[in-house]
Amino acid sequence: MSAPVLMYTTAVCPFCIRAKQLLKARGVEQIEEVRIDLDPVRRDEMMEKTKRRTVPQIYIGATHVGGCDDLYALDAAGELMPLLETN
Questions:
Q1: Can you list the domains of the chain with their CATH numbers?
Q2: What was the pLDDT predicted at 87?
Q3: What is the pLDDT of residue 2?
Q4: Across the chain, what does the average pLDDT equal?
Q5: What is the CB neighbour count within 10 angstroms for residue 64?
Q6: Cα(49)–Cα(75) distance, rounded to whole angstroms?
Q7: pLDDT score recorded for residue 26
Q8: What are 33's strand-pairing partners?
Q9: Distance separating alpha carbons of residues 65 and 56, to the nearest angstrom
Q10: Within the chain, which residues score under 50 in pLDDT?
Q11: Is the distance from CB of 34 to CB of 28 less than 8 angstroms?
C-alpha cells in the first residue's frame, strides 16, 4: 500500500498528466485530485500551503514534493519509492 497522494491540478495541464503517469507507473493506485480551476477557495488554500502558484503541487503523505519537475527529480534520485512506501 502506498502513501496517500494529494495533487492540486487544473483541467488542461500537461505537467499534471506527466506527474500522474509517473505516480501510476510507481504503483500509486489512487490520487486525490483537487481541481483549483473549479474551486477558487482550494486555489487559495494551495497557494497558502505551498507558497506556489503553479500546478501540479503534489503531497505524498504530509510531505510537499512540489511540482512535476520536483517529482521526476525525486524519482531520479531514488527517493520517490521510499517516500511512497513510508509515508
A1: 5-86 (3.40.30.10)
A2: 56
A3: 75
A4: 95
A5: 15
A6: 23
A7: 95
A8: 7
A9: 10
A10: none
A11: no
Using DSSP's 3-state secondary structure scheme, residue 75 falls into helix
* The pLDDT of residue 41: 96
Closest CA to 84 of 8, 16, 15, 28: 28
Contacts 24+ apart (CB under 8 A), 48-56: 50/8, 55/8, 55/9, 55/10, 55/13, 55/15, 55/16, 56/7, 56/8, 56/9, 56/13, 56/15, 56/16, 56/19
User: What backbone torsions phi and psi does residue 79 show, to the nearest 5 degrees?
Assistant: -105, -5
User: Peptide bond before 56: cis, by omega within 30 degrees of 0?
Assistant: yes
Pairing between β-strand 57-60 and β-strand 63-66 as defined by DSSP bridges: antiparallel
User: Taking a C-beta distance cutoff of 8 angstroms, is the pair 71, 81 a contact?
Assistant: no
- Which of 65, 59, 49, 57 is closest to 6 using CA atoms? 59
Grid cell 490520487 in the structure block, residue: 31
